Amino acid sequence: MVIERHWKKWVYFYIPLTLFIIGTLFPFYWMLITAVRPDAELYRSWRAVNNTPFWTLQPTLAHVQDLLARTTFPRWLWNTFFIAIVSTGISLACGLLAGYALARLRFPMAGLLGTSIFVTYLVPPTLLFIPLADIVRNFHLGNTPWALILTYPTFLIPFCTWLLMGYFKTIPKELEECARIDGASRFGAMVRIIFPIAVPGILSAGIFAFTLSWNEFIYALIFLSSPERKTVPVGVVSELIRGDIYFWGQLMAGALLGSVPVAFIYSFFVEHYVAGLTGSVKG
Amino acid sequence: MALLRPRDVQQPVLARLLDNERALAAVLLAPAVLILAVFIAYPFVMGVWLSLSSTSVGNPGRFVGLQNFLKAWNDSIFQTTFQNTFVYTFWATIFKLALGMWLALLLNRHFRGKRFVRAAMLLPFIIPTVLSTFAWRWMFDPTFSVLNWLLYRTGLIVTKLPFLSDGTWALWCAIVVNTWRGMPFFAITLLAGLQTINPDLQEAASLDGANAWQRFWHVTWPLLKPVTIVVVVFSIIQTFSDFQLIYVLTGGGPANSTHLLATYAYQIGVATGLLGEGAAISLFMFPVLLAVVWIQLRYLRRLEGA
Predict the structure, then answer these.
(1) At what angle do helices A73-104 and A232-239 cross, to 10 degrees?
(2) Mapping DSSP to helix (H, G, I), strand (E, B) and coil, where does residue A186 land?
(3) What DSSP designation does A58 have?
């Protein structure tokens, strides 16, 4: 072991780590405290003597009530959830099949296809949003959830394929060969032997894809227009700012409520999420 | 045994087809390739066409050659935007790498509550960027900024800092927020890389008299390089093509001084409706992305070859 003195441990470990924790979490604390602070306290001069920005003695749920009364926030939550679930499902199904084919089967142009799927993985949504908006309009998908359900897989499928391909490569080939000798078809061996073993990988890809869809903004901003069809990020941006006026209490309440579901799911699957995150770059 | 079992004989056509390796591969790849072709390859071709045309909303437009690109190139807002995109990407990536590496090294030690701290550290990366950026925008508010309050109270400043009301300040604020959001990704992936390094190596170096910095520089860093390069490439692509953070934090302002290529393309292409010019502006990202992807592919090949 590398031996350290006591004070050194404070200087090199505890203090930096504490600063990292404060820096990382402070914006979330600020979101929470703003969401429950009454308006009278919110807009007090920054030099006021009685300003106590880090806590409040009159916590209120008024902003949350306003948010629910004046916007269709629960509807946005449901839209986001529905779109994220369906597009994740589609992407997982496609990624599972494609990942298996690329990891296990030998066919002409396998290398080329693998490379091109990897390249699409690196195409950012912001490169193509203008022509995509046109295509969505031509398919008459504008302002429907299907515009997003069909376009989110463009960044989710490459990711799922890449991650699952890496996962399949770690499963010994002998398992399939045994099943084949026992009379299973290639397809049967894949579905009944390999897919069940890959469940942790599938879960990692699924959790990660879900958070990516929940996070997506630019497509949702461009493809959806009616307030009740919007997702949480777009709804918060477009319905809670009127003209130049920011309703900070409601905005922070919306940001908080929009973050809770994804943070909640994440908290249950931290390990899977981390596996997805680190797998996404390793492949 | 050469005898055919009855099952094999009666196999339906579909099952026999699926047992052929090539046919199965084609069937398995078809859904993914189809979606990617329709929603990536086709839009890409269409984007190139749009960028060469004078299309705008409600006007089909005609071929104008490279006029859109030239117009953008000579436009002073575009020039600022182009420069911003590089400054933003360069500094944010440097900060994310440095802080992420530091955090990864801290998290690689044993301490109580480590799992909890690691989970909490990832929060900025999980929470939708738009929503957390609003919290930052509120923290940078010109009138009610908590950061100004804090600095004023601790006696570090006497007048308010113009966080988002000055172009240069605003771009650096965006770099700070991007660093805050992306740093956990670096930390957690680098941590995963650190955990694969055998601790005996550290100990051996320590016995040979290497200090902490030397141990990091000569032992840890060379072993961590492959994963670092991949993470940096991913981050460069994400940062270079960033949209949401700027859209929420500054909206490109004040006076169009903080646009990135993506937000400016949105402003011209969607908000103003000049589809051709917008498509051309977003295609300015392409050469850089291509170069980065090419480096990445070459690097992966070399790893596989080794």
Answers:
(1) 140
(2) helix
(3) S
What chain B residue is nearest to A87 in terms of C-alpha separation? B35
Structural domains in chain B (count): 2
The shortest CB-CB distance from A105 to any of B25, B150, B160 is to B25
Residue whose tokens read 């935007």? B81
- SS3 assignment, position B117: helix
Would B152 be classed as within a structural domain?
Answer: yes
Question: Which residue stretches of chain B have pLDDT < 70?
Answer: 1-11, 303-306
From chain B, the residues in CB contact with A36 under 8 A are none
DSSP state of A46: T
B226 and B106 within one domain: yes
What are the structure tokens assigned to A59, written together? 């916590």
Quote the domain boundaries for residue B95. 75-305
Q: Are B148 and A265 in contact (CB under 8 A)?
A: no
Answer whether B188 touches A (CB < 8 Å).
yes
For A236-253, the pLDDT digits (tens) are 988 888 777 788 889 999
Could you give the ipTM of this predicted complex?
0.91
The dihedral sign for the CA sequence A149, A155, A157, A159: negative
CB contact (8 A) between residue B270 and residue A95? no
CA B276 from centroid of its chain's CA atoms: 25
User: Which CATH superfamily does the domain covering A65-282 fall into?
Assistant: MetI-like (1.10.3720.10)
Q: Nearest CA to CA, how far is B118 from chain A (Å)?
A: 9
Dihedral sign for Cα A176, A182, A188, A191, please: negative
- What stretch of H or E contains A216? none
Q: Does residue B230 belong to the interface with chain A, where contact is any CB pair within 8 Å? A: yes
What is the pTM for the complete model shown? Answer: 0.91
Residues B130 and B39 in one domain: no
